[in-house]
Structure formats: C-alpha cells, structure tokens
User: Fold these one by one.
Assistant:
Number 1:
Amino acid sequence: MLLVVMVSLLAVEAYVNAKFTPDGTHDRQGQGSVPESVRTGGPIINTGHGAVQSYRLPPKTIALTFDDGPDPFWTRKVLQVLQEHQVPATFFVVGSQVGRYPELTARIADGGHELGVHTFTHPNLTELPSWRRRMEYNQTQLAIAKAAGVQTSLIRFPYSSRADAIDDRNWPLVREAGELGYLTVVNDTDSVDWARPGVDAIVRNATPTGDTGAIILFHDAGGDREQTIAALHRFIPELKARGYQFTTVSQGLNLSLAQAATPQQVAGHTAAPSADRWRGAALVWAIQIADGTIDVLGVLFVIVGVLAIGRTVLLFLLAGRHARRRRSPDWSWGPPVTDPVSVIVPAYNEKEGIAAAVRSLAAGDHPGIEVIVVDDGSTDNTADIAAALRLPNVRVVRKPNGGKPSALNTGVALARHDLIVMVDGDTVFEPDSIRHLVQPFGDPQVGAVAGNVKVGNRRSLVAKWQHIEYVIGFNLDRRLYETLRCMPTVPGAIGAFRRSALLGAGGMTDETLAEDTDITMALCRAGWKVVYEEKARAWTEAPSTLGQLWKQRYRWSYGTMQAMWKHRHAVTEHGASGRFGRRGLPFLALFGVALPLLAPVIDLLAIYGLFFFNSVETLLAWSAMLVLQFVTAVVAFRLDKEKLGPLWALPLQQFVYRQMMYLVLIQSLATALTGARLRWHKLHRTGQALGAGPTG
C-alpha cells in the first residue's frame, strides 16, 4: 500500500513537472490548409460552430498578455507593476502552476485581470492525441475553477506566436479548440523577454507600429523576469503617452465587435459550476500533496545522506582504531583465562546440524569444556542424535517444549561452571573458538562477549548477500558499539556470559522475540562491559531462500524493537543505565531503524530522477552512494581478514536484498505499532553450516 501510494504521488509529480522550452521556438511547416483570412487576420480566432473568424483590437488599444505563470515571485512583481500603472492584463496560466499557487491565481482574477488557458503541463500539443489535449484544457479549467471560482473561454497554445505563423500542424488544434468553445489567442508583437535580450530590446520588440492595436506577449514565469519588470515600467507609460488604452483580451475584442456594430459580446469570465470547483479542489490537493511529498523526500534524502556519511566516518575511525588496538602486540585482556566453561546448546528440531555442532564444541582446545544440549521438545530425534555421539563431556537434557529462553535457562541452571557459552544448534565452532571467546573475562568488568559469526553456506546468491551483511553490518558494527560501550546484541550463535552477570540481569526472558538483544541491553544497563572478540569464530547456516530469510529478519527486527521499547526508561536514568539509554538506544534507533526505513528514499529518488530529473546527475549521485558502500565493505572485509571475492554481489544486493530488508523492517514496525504478538518462526536447516568451512 505504501509503495502504491508513493508511486502514485511520484507519478502526479512527474506529470505536473513537465519541462518546457520558451514559446515561439518550434519550427514551422507548410500553411496550405490554413485559410487566408486567418493567416492575414488578427490574433483572436474563432472557429466555433463551423465559422472561421479572426479579430484585431481597435487602433491605439493594447492587451498585455503574460504566459507560463503563475509564478510565486515574478507574477507578484508583474501584478505590482500593473497596479502601479492602473492597467489590466490577461494571464494565460499553466494549470499545474495554478494548482500550486491557487491564492495567486485568485488574486489575478480579483484584481480585474483576465485568465486564459495555457494547458496544464505546457506540452507541444501537436504531438499529443486529441483525448490528451482535451485533458490538458479540462484540467486547467478545473484548477482555475478551484482557485478563482471562474471559467474562461480564452486559450493560447504553448509555442504559438502570430496568426501568420499558424501552419498545417497547428490549424487542426485551432479548429478543435473552436469546437470546444474556445477563442484561440495568439499575439501581434512578441517581446521575446524569455531570451532576456535587454530592456531596450524588449520594449522595442513589444511596441506596435503606428497606431495599430496589438495583443502583446510577455512572460511572468519560466526564469528570471527582472528585465520584463523593468521593460513594463518603461513600456506602459510610453504607450499611454502616445494615446493608447490598455484592456484585457476580451475587453479589446468587445471594443472591436462594437465598432463593427456586431451585437454579440464576449465575457472574459463566467462563474464556474460548483461541481467543477469540487473536482478542481481534488486536482489542486493532489498537486500540493505530490509537491509536499517531493519536498519531504528531498529533506529525507539529505537526512539519509548525513546519517550514512556520519555512520561511515564513525565506522572508519572507531572500528579501525578498535581493530588496531586489539591487534597490537602488547594488547591483553589480563591474565589468561583457563577456567572451565559450560556450553549450552538449545535445540528444537535441529537434526540436520546438531551432530556437527556438538562435535565441534566438545573438541574445543580450551580446558574443561562441558556441553549441555537442551532438547526443547524436538520431534525429529535431535536429542537421540546428540546422545548417540557418546562424547564424554556432553550431556543431553530433554524437556517439554517451552521456547528458546526456557531452554537456555534450563541449561544455565544445570551448568557446573561460572563461564557460560550459548550456542545455536546449527552452529559449528573452530577448535580455538571457545578459548578465544572467554579470554576477555580476564577483565573483571567484562560481563559478556560477542563472538564473530560467519556464514557457512555461501554458495547461493542469497547466502552471499548475508555473508556481506554479516561482515559489514554485524561484525564491523560490533567494533563500533564496543568502543562506545553500547553493544546492543551478543549473538545467539556465539556468545559468552559470566553466570553472576547473567543471573543478576534476570536471565533469559521470553518478553521479547530477541532474547539475546534483551539480555545484552540488560547487562549494559547493569554496568557490565560487553565486548567483541573477532578471533572467536562460529560458522552458522544462513537462510538459503528469500522466504526463510524474510521470516528470520522479521523476527529479528520485531524482537529488537520490542527490546528497545522494554528498555526505553534507560534514557532518563543515571549511571551505566543512563549511558546506555542515551547512547546505545538513540544510536540503534538512528542506524538500526530510522536509516534503513529512510534508505528507500534514495532508491525512489534515483528511479524518479532517471526519468524526470537530470539522468546523468542522478546516476552520479547513486553511484557515489554505491562507492561509499563498497569502500565500507572493503574496509570491513579487510578488518575481518576476509577475501574480497564475494563483493562482486554487492551491486546486485542493492536491487533485491536491500529492498527486501526495507519491507521487513516496515512490516516489523507495523507489527510493533499495532501491538501484535509475533510467533516463533522455525527455519528450515540443511546442515550446511560448514559450506564455506573454517578453512573455506
């Protein structure tokens, strides 16, 4: 629904923002079909009811006409000049501009001036089908009806000039306009002010010869009209001094009809029907909403850019410093940690990977490892498979199904040791992973340690995208979070805890679907350090299909939002809790929620810009964002000592994977706002956690 609404608004914006070139610049063709009386006649042409009539203004009569407005700046300037010199004028308005500035259009009509149709988007009408031309006229009339409460019978085609320039392409348009009840208005003299030739040239171009009457073309929009304003200040007094009177087009036509003793009169404006006013209101609102949407998107684009660049700078500075400090020869957490470790493996229907996971854990090179497999009511013989391994340091515990937090708490209660490692049932450890993982406990302030999660099954494109995400979005971020002392998540795939810290924070709860994020935030609020150990590597099986990935990330995103809401009071607290609340929660809200939610703005504006803005500039801007992401990826891969080969999939990631993550986050936010309770989604496993392998 959001996408449909946004695309609809952008479509409206694209339609009403048609770019056009100045009037009178299009090439002319033959005039064989144009009647002689029209080519040699006046600038007002009536082809209604099968007649072909043209009219000139009486001698010493001038009708000033202004095209392409209203413009919020220059039209006001023109109206000020006209008011100062007490002369009326006729404004041939563009409907889309009327929709943007209805109050200015009303001011034109209320000031005794006249409105005429100059189409809705200023297209070259000869290139449009008849239905589209009628739509251009009707939409402009509706916009005028909403803005000024009137309708007009005057029309001027874009790119038209004098009567003697009407050619075989334009004559059918004039005939059609007459059948629709319009009087076609061209001009006698063209000021050519759109070219900004100088005030003298504009006055000279506009001045009629002798005492002839004239309809004169000026512009009140489409660019800088400072020369037009200056020329009007000179032109009007000079022509008044020569005895000219100034009228609107319809007033001038009525003077001509009166001199010819013709009884008919032309009304400049008539009251618009109420139905047209309501339809016009809908049209104007659509334009204004679309304009407002583009303005908001523009602001959001700046915000996204600032956030993305700011995050990148922070990552480069802090994550890089973190890596250099850890790899320094004199770095140490403290005395080597050789205390025994209890490894808890919660398992529910993990038959595909449980054997490999348990073997890797039991065979770790850290002294004193006990592995506790807590089978949470599996229905696929997971417990039997683990027990059949008959490993001396492995215990298998069976319990009724109660969820992952329940299984973890059961394991903690049964653990014999004070250092607790928690591992997902599909995760494979390297031989030295546990030893590296617990070394940070040499620092007595460390309460938990996040390990380095690697995607094992990297063969599929979806898995490659996740591999890139794990390295950039998870492991690189954890370096940054540790430096700022606001680590939000110790991953369930590989994390270590002090028992005292874990129990002091209330243990694992089922109050959120992200129990690992929940407990990590609780530890940070309790004042414990939560750190990242890159050497402790664990290989996990990432979802291999988009459907499975959606379920996983939906749960992660929703669970993270639940945890943020649960710990929201930390923002107003003091001490360690307040530090996490005012540092970690805003950081997570900005870069974990707001930035991904706003990031589609870049894609939307990129697509919109390719078709309706400068396509080269749009491509350059989008490419710059891609380069920024690529540089970030290279830095992350280098820090993690990963090969750069998988980065070939990064550009493709921008077109599918990233958009999917947007939708997941939007759905998660909608679920959170409605208060719905999301159930646990069990992912399908194939036992391919070692697809890339510790040596792959």
Number 2:
Amino acid sequence: MSMSGDPTLQAVRQLEDEFAEAMSRMYAVGNDLARLRARLVRETSPQQWTPVPDEGPPAVTPPATMAPHAAPVPGTTGTVTAPPVAHAPFAGERPSHVPPPAGPSRPSTPWWQRDGLVSRLLAVVGAGITLIGVAFLLALAIQLGFFGPLARVISAGLLAAGLVTAAIVVRRRRAGTAGALGLAATGFATAYLDVIAVTRIYEWVPVAAGLGIAGLVALGGLLLARAWDSQLLGGIAVLGVAALAPTIAYDHMLLVAQFLLVLTVVSWPAQVSRRWHVLELVRIVPTAIVIALLPAFAEPIGAIVLLACLLAGFVLATSLAGVRVDRAPAQAGIAVPVVAVPVLSAALAAERSTGTTLMIGLTLALVLVAALTAGRLPTGSRGDTLLVTGSCLYTAGVTSLVAAALVADGTDWSLPALLTVGVLWAGASLALRDRTVLGATLLTSALPLVLTVALMPYAIDRGTAMQVGPAHLVAASLTVVLLLALAQTVSESHPRTTIAVRALLAGALLAAGGTVIIAGALLGDLADDARGGFTAGQTGATVLWLATAAVLLLRGLRGSAFAVPAGLAITALSVGKLLFFDLAFLDGIPRVLSFIVGGLIVLGMGTGYAQALERSRREPGPVDKSGDGPRSPHTV
C-alpha cells in the first residue's frame, strides 16, 4: 500500500521544505553580516589586514540535518561549499577562525585618560591648596587684628561645617564625584586644626576633652564614608585623628594610647559588609606604634602590658570573627604581626617572668586562632582565611622563639631552648602535615640552625675541649633531631623537593659527627682528660661516617640510585678527614686507631659491596610491574 498520498506524510515533507528554506535564508543573512564585518575591519585597520576583493556574500553549506529533498533557495544554483569566512556568530558563540591581529598591539589608554584619575588628582591638590589658603587667611586676619581667639575658633568650625555640607551637596548632584571627597577631606582637616587650637593653643578644654572631640569628628567621617561607600574618606578621617592625637597630648602619651585603642575598637563596625583592608591597617597600625613606644616615655609598665594585651586580643578576636561569622567584616590578617609588636615591647620592658608569661600566652592565643580559622573555609573567603591562618602561625613561631630566649635569659642554655622550640614545631608539622604549618616551622627553625655555627669550634679545635658543657651536647643532639625531622616533613609535604631533603640529611650527618666529638670531650673532661676525650671523639666521628657510608652502599644494591653516590661521597669525606685532619691534629694511640679502624671499615665496605653485588647479579631482580622485565638493582 502506497503512502505517497498520506496527508500526514505530505504535511511533514512540506514542513521540512519550509524549514530548509528558512535555514538557507538565515545563512544568507549571516553571510551578508560576515561580509559587512570584514569590510568594516579592513576600513578601520587596513595595516593589519590583507585586502580581499569584494566578491559578494560567501555561501555556506546548509547543515547536514536539512532535508535531502529541500528545494534550493531562489536565485541560487544549488548547494556550494563554504569559503574561509564563516557565518556571523550568534550570541554566546565564539568566532572559530578570526585571524589574530598582526604587528604591534594598540597602545594602552594614557594614564591621564583613565576614568577618574585626573579628577582625583586634582581633588587632592585642590584640597591641599584650599587648606593652605584657609591657614593664610586666618594668619592674615590675626595680623590685622580682625579676629579674636573666639572668633577664630568659631570661624574655623563654621568653615569646616560649610566644607562638609558643600561636599554633601556636590555628592548629591553628581554621584561619585571626586570633588566631594576633596571638599569633605578639607573640612575634616579644618576641624582637626580647630581642635588643636581649642586644646593646645588656647587651652580652653582639657586634653581628654580635646581627644574626645577629635574622636567625634573621626566617627562623623566614618559615617559619611559608609554612606558614600568611600574607603578613602574613612581612611583620611581615621588617619587624621591618629596623627592629631600625639600633637594634642604629647606629654600624656598614655592617654593618647588609650584614646587610640578606643578609636580602634569603636571604628571596627565601619568595615561591616565592606572589604576595607586599608582602613583596617589605618585603624590598627598607629595604635600599635604608640603602645610599642610607651616604654620609652617611662609610662607605668602595668598599664602598657594591659593596653598591649587588649589590642592583641581585640585584633585576634575580630580576625577570628571575620572567618567564623559570615556577617562579621573579613580581616586580611596583615594586622596580626603588627599587634604582636606592642606585646613584645611590653615583654622586654617588664620583668623576665612577666615577659615570658606574655610571650607564651600570645603564642598559645595565636596558635588557637590559627587552628580555629584553619577549620573554616567559607565560600568566597578562602584567601582571607589562609592569610589569617598563615599570619597567626608565622607570628606564633617568632613569639615562641622570643619566649624561649626570655626563659633562657642569656645563659648557655639559650641555644638549646631555641632548638627545642624548632623541634616542637617540626613535630607539629609532621603530625598535621600542613604546608602552612611547615612554612611556620621553617621560619622558626632558621634562626636556631644558623646559631648552631657557634658549636663548630668545639668540634674542630682541641683547645676548646675544656670549655665544653652539657648545654653544648644537648644543643648538638637537638640539631641532629631537628634536621632529621625537617627532612622527613619536607619529603612528605613536597615529595619532589629532593635537593632540600638531601641537604638536610647531609647536615644531620655532619651534626651527628660533631655531637660525637662534643660527647667525647665532655666525657674526657669528667675523667680529667678533656683533650683525650676530644681525640677519641674525632675517631668516633670518622667511624660513624664510614658506617653510614657502608649502610648507604648496601641500600644502593637494593634499588636506590642515590644511595651509592651518597655512600661514596661520605667515604671520600671520611678518608679526607683521616688524611688532612686526623693526621695533622691527632697523635699517638688516637691517630693509630683512627687509621686502623678507618682502613678496616673501608676494606670491609669494598669486600662486602663486591659480594653483595655478585649475589644481586645471580639472583633474579624484582619484577617490574609495567611488564618490561626485571629491574636493575640501581634503578629507583
């Protein structure tokens, strides 16, 4: 039964024909647009494009989904292939083969044509010139006797209010104008100068009242900055009062520090729902500087300690809140090391026990905040979280070193105390396996490891054998432990950092030899023969290094490509020590023992390595899992 007369099939074929005709017209329009675009490109940048003769709109082959029996578009002779120019891209489609521009790129926009740059620059310059003009006007009025003290103060206050009002008016007429910021900044600066006049020049109000008035002016500036969403205006308002406070009360620095601390606290809400990290530094840095300088002004140490702890506690609490509470303003964490400076200054100025307690308490607080922030990574604030965590950990590492130095109080146990801190940090890094903790560990361990250079004379100079004490032996032993722990944690956190791991292991081996020498000198001193103990320690160090070389050679036969060269290098180092050091500085029985024992160990190493190598050749090597056959004993 024929279905050619089926009305449904005929309707489907008719729809296919209409769809094919519509698609052909769409491609024709696309080709016209592509031709027009090419012409516009040639006209606008002729040096970058090769002129192409205008041959009319390029044709494009209809898609494969078009019905095979679709009628050709009127005016065409069938279906032709597409030339290199494709159809105009639709919305969201990227051009597939638009040629890249040849030659040099177009010059960037000059700095004077950038949006708002010139206007902001002129606003700053205009504000400064206006302020200078106001000062000249007041000076001229005073010289001519036009204004008395009361009139000067009132006129300056009215001028400040007028400038701020004008700024508000300008801002309403033209949103975002830089002129309004310039007018407002000039108004606040005039208000600050007026506060100086009534507080210091005429002394009409007490110093505390003057600081309170300046604080109110700063809070007004912050409110206006919030309304205008201008971090610049908020920074000017806070920085202005921070610079003004020491001028008003230069002989009451404790009062200045108290005022700035209150300002730091009450201005914190200005950052809610804003990422104003510059304002954060402007709020905190001047306060930290003033509190850190209080010991130089012979202020009561108890008050200094209290202010330093309050500032550090507030910054740590707000930093933690910025990570844990979504509605709290996010803190950048840059201020964490800043607020540790006043605590350090107070700790150094206080008694040793008080200072030690301060530094240990600050270290524990920093570690606690770092632990709490590391467990929280809210959406969109991962960078802030990591910065706060890292800043706390790095600062905690430095403060822990200071605490250890205060505990030792400059005795021979200072280096062991510092190395103990490094070992504790290395242990924490091994346990947590966190790269941020590893960074703090490396920072904390750097200074103690550098200071271990002071132990070198006790390992190479026999004349210092009488001066060796238990603290030196403990320090040398802790150096070995610290280097081994660092090598382990670095290899786990950065598996590809083989050079650093090998350097740490080599340092640990050298330190182990020095430990043996110092131990020998100390034991000899207990037996009233420190020099004999020193020479015995030298022999023990040589034997230790040769034994280590033997172990490495045997390990090399089990598949480590690095162990054999390392073992040979240590053997060469040990032989060199025998020939150049032991031969020159040892005598008698110690020299004989060094050469006999060392020679026997080297002979044993050669014989044992040869036998082990022969056995490894006779025995089948470990099967390579990749299916390429047995592996060589020296293949990693």
